[in-house]
Design a protein that fits this description.
mainly alpha; 767 residues; Serine Threonine Protein Phosphatase 5, Tetratricopeptide repeat
Length: 767
Amino acid sequence: MLINKLFSNHGVMIRLGPKCCWVKALPFSSFSGPFDAKESSVSDGARQRVDQVCHILESGPWGASLEDALWSCGQVPHGQLVAGVLSRLKNVDLALSYFRWTEKVDDKAHCSEAYNALLMVMVKSKSFDMLEQILEEMSLAGFGPTNSVCIDIVVSCVKSHKLREAYGIIQMMRKFKIRPAFSAYTTLIGALSEAHEADLMLSLFHQMQELGYEVTVHLFTTLIRVFAREGRVDAALSLLDEMRSNSCNADIVLFNVCIDSFGKVGKVDIAWKFFHEMRTHGLSPDDVTYTSMIGVLCKANRLDEAVNMFEQMELNRKVPCAYAYNTMIMGYGLAGKFDEAYKLLERQRLKGCIPSVIAYNCILTCLGKKGMTDESLRIFEEMKKDAKPNLSTYNILIDMLCKARKLEAALEVRDSMKAAGLFPNVRTMNIMIDRLSKSGLLEEAYSLFKEMDHKVCTPDSVTFCSLINGLGRNGRVDEAYSLYEQMLDSGRIPDAIAYTSLIRNFFMSGRKEDGHKIYKEMVRRGVHPDLTLLNTYMDCVFKAGEADKGRALFEEIKAHGFIPDVGRIDEAYLIMEELMQNGLTANVYTWNCLLDALVKAEEINEALVCFNSMKDLKCAPNGITYSILINGLCRVRKFNKAFVFWQDMQKLGFKPNMITYTTMISGLAKAGQVFEASLLFERFKANGGIPDSTCYNMMIEGLSVSNRAEEAYKLFEETRLKGCHIYSKTCVILLDALHKAECLEQAAIVGAVLKETAKSQHASRSL
C-alpha cells in the first residue's frame, strides 16, 4: 500500500535492492522551482503532451487557426502542461499568446511554475517589455520569481551590458513587494563595480541591508574600491566606519584594496595609515601589500621610501617576489634611474630568478616615455637572453619608434615580430596608424591601412577614427568623409569621437553646412553624443556666427543632462556677433579682449585666425595685440613663430613691455636658442629694462644647459646682487653644469646657496 502511494507521487523515484529499499525525491514542478521538460522525472506521457502542443505552436503564426488546433488536440491546459510548453518556447510573443490563451480557456490564474517558465522565455529572448505587467500579476497572486529565475534575469542583462536596465528591474521588483534574490544583488553590484557606477552600487547595497540580507566584508571591499578609485575619499571612509559598526572584521584583502585604491588617487598618507593599521588587527603584510605600497610610493615620486619598503620586504626572503621587482623596476624607470633598474635585473638573476618579459616591458615603456629609442633597441636585444619578447613588447617598441618618426625602424620591428612567430594584431596596427597620423605622416599611415589583411587583422573603429581625425586635421576633409563612408560599409558604427572630428574639421575648413549634415546624420543613426562632441559643435556654431543655433545647442546640452562648457571664448564670440549685428564696429580693444580669451584657453590657432580677421576688417593691431600673441605662442612652445611676431612688432615701431621681453627671453632660452636670448636680454637691459626673477632664472638655466657654465655663474652673481630670488631648480641645473666644467670653487658657492635655500624653506614650512 505504501509502495503504491509512493509510486503515485510525482517526483519520487524508488530503487529496490537485494538488501534494502531507498527512496529519492527528484526536483520537479512545485517541489523546487519552475517546470523543466528536460527533467528525467517527467513521465513519457507528459512529455508527449508537451511535444504535441509545441508542434502545433511551431506550425505557424498565432491566430484563430492555431487556437482551433490547440482546442482540437484535446489537451486540457493545466499548470504542469503550460509550464512544460513554455519552457520549450523561445519566441516571447508566441509564449505570451499561449500563456493568455490558456488563462482564458482554463478560467483560472496561472500557477507559480507557469509564470516562472514565462519569465525564463523572456530571459532567453532578452526581451523584458512585458516584465512589469507579469511581475505585477505575480505580486497580486501572492508569489514572485524563484531565486534562480531572479538571478537569471539579472545575469541576462549583465551579459548584454544593460546594467541600468538590470537596476531598473530590481527596483520594479521592490515596487511590487517582491524580494530580489541575494545573488541577484551581488551579481549586479559586481558588474556595476566594473562599470564604475558607484552610486547605483551603494543604492543596491543599502537595499540589501533594508531587506535584512547579511552584508559581508567582501561586499564592503567591492564598494570601497570603487569609491576610493573615483577619489570620493569621504564616501569610502564612511563605508569603512559602517563596516566596523557592523562588527565586520577587516581582512587582508580589504587592507590591500584600500592601500592600492587610495594610493592610486594620490592619497598616499591614507594608504600609509592602512599599511600601519594592519598590524594592529593582527595581520602581516603579504606580497600584494608590499607591492601595492611600493607602487603607490613610486607613483607619488617618493622613490626613497619605496626603496626602503622594497628592502624591508626583501629581508629574510629566499625567493624574490617577481611582482615587487617589476614594480620597483617601473619606479626607477619612471624616475629616469635606468642604471638602478638594470641593477635590480642583475640582483634578480643572482637570486636565481630570471627577469620576466614584464620586467623588460616596464623598462622599455619608461625608455619610450623619455624618448630614448636607441637605448630601447639595445635593451630589446639584451632581453632575448632572459625572456622571449611578447606582443606587448613589440607594440611598445613600435609605439615609441612611430612617435619618434622612425618609420623604417618601426617596420623592421614589425617584420622581426613576424619572424618570431608573432603576428601584428589590430592593436599593433592602431598604434602605428595613430602615431603616424599625429606625427603628420599621413601617407605612410594610409599606406599601412591599405596593407592590412582584412581577413586576418580587420580594422576596428579605433583604426578608422585615427585616420579620419588625422586626415581632417590636415585639411583633407573629403578623404576623411570617404573613409567614414568606408567605415559604414564595413559594418563599423562610428562613435562620438569620429563624429566630433568630422564636425570640427568641416567647420574649420569653412564648410559649416557639411558640419551640420554630419551632426544630423549622427542623430539619425542613433549615436548618442557625448559632452565633448556637443561642446565642440556649439563652439564651431558660435564661431561660424550662428548665434541662434549656438543658443539652441546650449539648451540641448542641458537637456542631455550635461553641464555646458561655455568658457570665455564662446561668450566672447557671442558678444562680438551681437555687437556687429547692432551695426557697431569692433575696435582694437575689443579684438584684444577676444585674443586674450583665446590665448588663455590655449586656442592659439584660432587666435591667429582672429588676428588675420582683425587686419582684414581694417582694424590695426597695437603693441598689446602683439604682446598677447607672443605670450600665447610661447605658452604652447611655438617659440620660432613668437620670434617672427617679435620682429614684426619692432618693424611697426611698437616697443615691447617688460612682460613681452620676459616672455620672449624665457621662450628662447627654453627652446635652446640661448644666443638669441642673450642678445635680447642685453638689449632689454640697455633700453632701461629691469629683468625680474623669472627672466634671470630662465637665462641661467638656458646658459647652463648650453654648456656655458661660466657665463651662467656670472649671471647667478648678478641676480644675487640685484636681490632677485634664485629658484632651487635653477641652482641644481647650474651646479651640474659647473661640475661638468670643473669650476669647483663656483660650484661650492652655488651648493652653499642651495643648502641655505633648502634650510629657509624647511624653516618656513615648520612655522
